[in-house]
User: Which sequence fits this backbone?
């Protein structure tokens, strides 16, 4: 088990359908599904990244419900998943927060539905993680994917998830679950 | 690529939180996420199973929107995913429909978050599928899992998905995505 893994769901800067750089809205179910998968695979922190204050307030309301409100007694296992969820305004702030927490340089890995010329396979990345004690942050984009302007933040790119068909449109929830299983599954 | 794979999402008979046998409500996002994952991994048919007429009408309305309504032009890739979605009232009807379509006996595989004493690993199941030309139907439960009374329909049980922690509460959407990747991923 790799002990120093973080993931993030990026809501800005990402593309919309037309290729404009936008901030997407946070989706309640993304927080639920991805935190449960992250908790299952031993992820230390799952960052929701959005610069919009109203959206941050929305995330905080959801977190409060499941961490401290009625949700705690209604579904205690959901609390366990939500305990690893954190909120940041930007990818920079997220990297800084992890760096402060661990005292180490953060290896930032971008995921994408499209091939990047220098991408690692999941096997490559798994090996790199096992050789390296520094933290890794796997970043998942929302909307139509992480915008080019964020790319300088990436140390590595991981291969897109392909099934065995020509269809390449998984939800980010499914992509995150499969990526975690490939990297951390037994 | 295994050519004869079907999956089903069962809404009855399943358990609720207290262990009563109930019919769960169909969730819009289950249809979206699981159909996209199924289409990615070359699944031939994804069956939504519910005996409740109002719920069937709800599913038909969603399918119509993405297969024939505004959704077709709004998001053509969603249409491709929805093209493999089908609706049946019971697990028996689903097995019968697949048997009629293929002319063969259907191998029914139950998934569960709990261990079954005679379960196959995903590797075992993958091997069995590659040796066997008859169709396989992988059944995913909703709510708190498939009720005991349906168990006589199962030919095989597949291992629960474990990460690398003590936490065992994946969403059915994540569990379906990971199962398909383990069975059909490259």
Assistant:
């Amino acid at each position: 088990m790799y002990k120093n893994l973080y993931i993030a769901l990026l809501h800005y800067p990402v593309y919309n359908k037309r290729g404009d750089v936008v901030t997407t809205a946070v989706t309640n179910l993304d927080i639920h599904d991805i935190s449960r998968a992250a908790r299952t695979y031993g992820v230390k922190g799952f960052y929701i990244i959005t610069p919009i204050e109203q959206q941050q307030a929305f995330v905080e309301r959801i977190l409060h419900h499941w961490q401290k409100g009625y949700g705690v007694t209604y579904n205690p296992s959901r609390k366990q998943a939500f305990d690893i969820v954190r909120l940041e305004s930007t990818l920079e702030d997220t990297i800084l927060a992890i760096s402060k927490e661990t005292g180490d340089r953060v290896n930032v890995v971008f995921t994408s539905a499209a091939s990047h010329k220098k991408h690692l396979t999941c096997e490559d990345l798994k090996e790199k993680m096992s050789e390296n004690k520094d933290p890794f942050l796997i970043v998942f984009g929302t909307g139509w994917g992480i915008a080019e302007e964020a790319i300088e933040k990436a140390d590595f790119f991981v291969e897109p998830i392909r099934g065995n068909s020509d269809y390449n449109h998984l939800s980010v929830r499914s992509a995150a679950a499969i990526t975690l299983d490939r990297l951390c599954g037994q």
